[in-house]
Amino acid sequence: MIDSSKHTAPSAPGQAAPRRLEQPALPATVWLAGLGWLTPQRRGELLALLCSDEHQRLRRCRLPADQDRFLLGRGLLRLRLGQALGLEPARLRFRLGPQGKPALEGLESRDTLQFNLAHSGALVLLALHPERPVGVDVEKHRPGLNWRSIARRHLPRGCLEALEALPPAEQLSGFLQHWCRLEAGLKATGLGLAAVGAPPPPGLELHDLQLPEGYAGSLALL
């Protein structure tokens, strides 16, 4: 079901220090951080937490903004998981599932802790749950996006008509919210866009996130 509870998040998303999203009724912990928080000193601190594979992935990011999003996401993930598990963040190791979704490795019963990352624009989101598979997605509003063709190809039947029935000023934000729900659900299941159109798995929950102006986001749990 969709959680439509309203909560106002602070502005200036790009400058946001890592903080929990204080939204009523969320069944998982969601952390939010902005790229502007990455001072040179903090970059160095987060770089020291990454493993060799993560450093290689970081070097493959060609644009500085993509590098910052990757570094902030992985650094935030390691810091929050280390805090939750009482372990050194730099010592955490990850494995990839069949569809590339990361999971903790070598922690026996503690590796049931579930997590997921998302980023767009200047925001990075991290969702955590102690047991249930979780997915999160965020999208920055981009004027001029050809959302109709995307909706026609990927969203459930009837979504395009429902979006076109909205006032023109609300159509893009409406589409992005639908897209975030789709992506979060797919990430919770560990499946990719190849699963678009399949019936949602039993027990899937969707919760819309109340993010800074200009962003849409959703949380999914199984």
Give a quick rundown of the structure.
This protein has one domain (14-221): Ribosomal Protein L22, Chain A.
Q: Helices and strands: which structural class?
A: alpha+beta
State the strand order across the main sheet. 1-9-10-8
- Name of the CATH class: Alpha Beta
Largest sheet: 4 strands, mixed
- Number of discrete helical segments: 6
Gross CATH architecture: Alpha-Beta Complex
Question: Helix and strand succession?
Answer: EEEHHHEEEEEHHHEE
- Alpha-carbon distance between the two ends: 12 Å
What is the total number of structural domains? 1
The helix fraction, in percent, is: 25-40%
| pLDDT < 50 runs, ≥5 residues | 1-11
Mean pLDDT: 86
CATH superfamily: 4'-phosphopantetheinyl transferase domain
Oligomer class = single chain
- Estimate the global geometry from the Cα principal axes: globular
User: Which percent range describes the beta-strand content?
Assistant: 15-25%
